[in-house]
UniProtKB/TrEMBL annotation:
Gene3D superfamilies: 3.40.50.2300. The lineage of its organism: Bacteria, Bacillati, Actinomycetota, Actinomycetes, Kitasatosporales. It holds the Pfam family Response_reg. The keyword Transcription applies. SUPFAM superfamilies: C-terminal effector domain of the bipartite response regulators, CheY-like. Residues 151-216 form the HTH luxR-type domain. It comes from Streptomyces cahuitamycinicus. This is DNA-binding response regulator. One of its GO terms (biological process) is phosphorelay signal transduction system. Keywords: DNA-binding, Phosphoprotein, Transcription, Transcription regulation. Residues 4-122 form the Response regulatory domain. SMART domains: HTH_LUXR (SM00421), REC (SM00448). The keyword DNA repair does not apply.
Amino acid sequence: MAIRVLLVDDQPLLRTGFRMILEAEQDIAVVGEAGDGLQALDQVRALQPDVVLMDIRMPRMDGVEATRQITGPGRDGPAKVLVLTTFDLDEYVVEALRAGASGFLLKDAPADELVQAIRVVAGGEAMLAPSITRRLLDKYATHLPSGDEPVPDVLHTLTDREVEVLKLVARGLSNAEIAADLFVSETTVKTHVGHVLTKLGLRDRVQAAVYAYESGLVRPGAQ
């Protein structure tokens, strides 16, 4: 079945461009559009999309609050949110990730990246592009822990290998890249990632990456 996508952006021309790109794909169907967060909530309830392509800055209700209501407790459907941001990265992107977004994408990303991101998010994975992650973390470096603070006790529930995996996830590496780095199978990496998410009470890789930095496990600029 086709992936049902809802386009949310306050610029009609951008929505039209996204629609043209996505409707050229046989496995993707654009089921609706919205110009702000309030309209997005109504459309999600009415149309039950699989993925919501969500802008951040919009009138009436911004993308952060809309994301929180779409993915939070008592949500009406299984919709995943893929956040759209500008090249210089919006200051609200971290809040959108905390609110429940499954990833973020640059508005000027190539068409194939947009299509792939929607497929990844629809499949239950998180979209964590290393290049965007690095710029995001650099932008917020002054607001993240310095690394001198004690790490939360919950991190001590992780095995040494799970800590290694979490650090690599925070760097934006895919399962295949982590497997190559640690000389293990991709299946083993998936198992470790699953254990990390369960033990830390996190939803996906995006939340895991943010948690790793906010907890002080990984420091901005560290390799």
